[in-house]
Write a structure and sequence with these properties.
The complex is a heterodimer. By secondary structure, chain A is an all-alpha fold. Chain A has 17 helices and three strands. Classes of the chains: A mainly alpha, B alpha/beta. Chain B: It comes from Halosolutus amylolyticus.
Chain lengths: 474, 252
């Protein structure tokens, strides 16, 4: 699978570096290069924990109030649309991930399938996309932290949300630079705990909402604002589904990638999709959507209080803290991996992927993630942050589908995925169309920021890495 | 011949003491250089930066244990999980024994621990192979509450070794805390041979017994691996798991 790449001229960037391309043999347990082996240590549960742990924060703990305000109870439909789009993209991503079980995720597939320009734009956009997403999670965390204090009887008000968020953002960055031993195990535990809290809560709330226990809820028109807000809300809340592709970024570390990657990606989308839809249903049944919107980012706490009193409120506050924290932390990690992937391919200076001798961590990349995250967190613009993150990810998702179609059309000899998308070419084509279409429904401000980032990254390509050739290089 | 795996945290300066190197010289040895990374660092990222340095060190070490005679080779693995790497490489190379390096001079006498639910026969036959016709003595050690049975077991284990002309002694510890008794006995010996035990609650809390013995005795410990159920399955794994692995016996 490497013979042809050895004689290719990969081209150099402005610093004179070429992409590091080496022949490898992928087995279920390790990746074997000429001189050494890379152990695959993540199992299926670890992969699911990454996917679910990254996704579960926003959709349940930050968006219900905002989404219900925008679309009424039909916000449940917005989340369902998001889930369908995510699923349409998760399937092609799974196929590409099993064909190229390397670290780097979506960036890797696009640069190999569509070439260096698309690769640079996506790789650098992914960095910024994750930065925006992390900032968004951190702001959500700030709201929950303030609410926690309020539940404990210390009312500090919303003016402390941003300082707390920035403080914790700095904390995560430092923690990741100095090493997070057993973070993965902790993440598994957090995800399991969260799922139990949510299933218990949603189970009870769901029974109540359909009138089996308690008094029946006040009827409300399902889509009071019409169909368009349902779609625009889907574009907003799509940030909730950004986690599944993070599973692909650790593809190089996953055992039996041919089986575990598709299962982890598709499985985590299905799990959180169902949870999101039920959550909105329960939330809008507990309160009218206007009341819900009035509660803002932490509306779910009031929903918890409505059903289960202060225990419910406490469970949701606690869950929200855990969930936003785990999403933020997972995204900081993914960001540093995205930076490594592009610098390895000579699209960023090599120094960006240096590892710290003392802690063994990629301190430069983590700094390149942490710095911008803090700046963006300080703006506190929840919806804008979420939408820009969605924009940049949707761009990548659409291009992943296009890359799949491109690769399948002239199927290179090395292309041998263990998992093939059912319903090709309809599924990837729909995935691409749906991803790009969602972008069209965003607020203009988010689109301008997103387009600005794309132009800037394309400019960087033209300046720095015009001669680098990645297409088809494995 | 038995293959011995010697795992080393290669970038942290672990190496093979001269005593251990000469003890292992007649055996087939695979030096497993590994580097454990925190979870936030992709193994590949560390490889890019450290591979060359690690290979240099590994080549030197492999030469010490007989790479020039073709009895030793090395492998380099970047990992998040040390145990998993040792298990996988041991299975792939068919290594029945792994070594925990420690400080020691020339090895004159081995302490062979037979305590607990271990494969006594395999341990004894490994010791016979290891010693060969060299002037190395062996002390068979057993800690038990059953004096009668213990004596019998030691007798039975000592016979095949004595038959091969090895200087065998036995050491039976009755009603003593097994671990402490073993560490005490190890003081008069240059290296310890022991069997791997099934994972237990105790090993979960205190760490693997072999690691604790190595820490307590300071010297090297050779651990005869547990044979897992379906042992024949491991036998044909190497060819399957690493299809076109380049052959390299230290001379790359």
């Amino acid at each position: 699978m490497s013979g042809e790449s050895a004689v290719r001229d990969e081209g150099t960037n402005i610093d004179g570096d070429t992409p590091l391309v080496e022949s490898t043999v992928e087995t279920d347990e390790a990746t074997i290069t000429d001189e050494s082996e890379l152990e695959r240590t993540l199992g299926l549960s670890g992969g699911l924990a990454i996917g679910i742990g990254t996704m579960i924060g926003a959709g349940i703990f930050v968006f219900p109030g905002l989404a219900a305000g925008n679309a009424g109870p039909a916000a449940a439909g917005s989340f369902a649309i998001g889930a369908v789009v995510a699923l349409l993209v998760a399937l092609p991503t799974s196929e590409l991930a099993t064909a190229m079980p390397r670290s780097g995720g979506g960036y890797y597939y696009i640069s190999r399938g569509l070439g260096t320009l698309a690769g640079t734009v996506v790789g650098l956009s992914l960095w910024f996309g994750l930065v925006f997403a992390t900032a968004f999670y951190l702001v959500g965390f700030g709201y929950y932290a303030v609410d926690t204090l309020a539940e404990l009887g210390i009312a500090v008000g919303d003016r402390l949300v941003i300082p707390i968020a920035v403080l914790f953002g700095a904390g995560f960055t430092v923690l990741n630079v100095t090493g997070t031993e057993n973070a993965a195990k902790l993440q598994n535990g957090i995800v399991a705990l969260l799922l139990s809290i949510l299933i218990a809560f949603l189970g009870y709330g769901g029974l109540d909402a359909i009138g089996l226990i308690g008094e029946s809820a006040a009827p409300e028109q399902f889509a009071p604002l019409g169909a368009l807000p349902v779609v625009t809300t889907a574009a907003l809340v799509f940030t909730s589904y950004l986690g599944f592709a993070q599973v692909a970024t650790v593809a190089g570390e996953m055992k039996e990638p041919g089986r575990n990657l598709p299962l982890a990606m598709v499985g985590s989308v299905l799990v959180v999709g169902v949870l999101y839809v039920v959550t909105i249903f329960v939330a809008t049944s507990a309160f009218g959507s206007e009341t819900l919107a009035g509660f803002g980012e932490t509306a779910m706490v009031e929903v918890g209080r409505h059903y289960l009193g202060s225990i419910g409120a406490f469970a949701i506050v606690f869950g929200g803290l855990l969930a936003t924290m785990s999403s933020a932390n997972a995204s900081v990690l993914s960001t540093s991996r995205a930076i490594y992937a592009v610098s390895r391919d000579a699209l960023l200076p090599r120094g960006a992927s240096r590892i710290n001798l003392r802690y063994g961590t990629p301190h430069v990349a983590l700094g390149m993630a942490g710095g911008p995250i803090l700046v963006l967190t300080a703006t506190g613009r929840v919806e804008l942050l979420a939408e820009v993150a969605s924009f940049l990810h949707l761009l990548m998702y659409g291009l992943i589908c296009v890359a799949l179609i491109a690769l399948r059309r002239d199927e290179p000899e090395w292309y041998d995925p263990d998992f093939r998308v059912p319903g090709y070419p309809v599924v990837p084509a729909l995935g691409a169309i749906a991803s790009f279409a969602l972008i069209a429904f965003m607020q203009p401000a988010s689109r301008y920021v997103g387009i600005g980032i794309v132009i800037a990254t394309a400019g960087w390509y033209a300046y720095y890495a015009r001669d680098v050739d990645l297409k088809g290089a494995l | 011949m038995t293959r011995i795996l010697v795992p080393l945290a290669i970038l942290e300066g672990e190496s093979i003491s001269a005593g251990l190197a000469s003890l292992l010289e007649p055996m087939n040895v695979t030096v497993l250089g590994y580097h454990v990374l925190p979870e936030q660092t992709p193994p590949d990222q560390a490889r890019v930066q450290y591979e060359e340095r690690a290979i240099d060190a590994l080549e030197d070490l492999a030469t010490e244990v007989g790479a020039d005679d073709g009895t030793a080779d090395y492998r380099l693995v970047f990992t998040h999980d040390r145990e998993q790497t040792i298990d996988r490489v041991a299975a792939e190379t068919g290594a029945d024994v792994y070594a925990i390096t420690g400080a020691t001079g020339p090895v004159d006498r081995l302490l062979v621990a037979l305590t607990g639910d271990v494969a006594v026969e395999r341990i004894v036959s490994f010791v016979a192979d290891l010693v060969g016709d060299r002037e190395i003595g062996a002390t068979l050690f057993l800690a038990t509450d059953d004096e009668e049975g213990g004596r019998e077991l030691l007798e039975m284990a000592a016979t095949p070794l004595a038959d091969r002309g090895i200087d065998v002694r036995t050491d039976l510890a009755i009603d003593e805390p097994p671990f402490e008794a073993l560490i005490d006995a190890a003081a008069d010996h240059d290296a310890v041979v022991m069997g791997e035990r099934a994972p237990s609650l105790r090993s979960l809390v205190f760490g693997e017994e072999a690691d604790r013995v190595a820490a307590g005795s300071v010297g090297p410990v050779l651990v005869v691996r547990r044979q897992e159920e379906g042992a024949e399955e491991t036998a044909d794994r190497p060819s399957e798991a690493a299809p076109d692995r380049p052959a390299r016996d230290g001379e790359s």
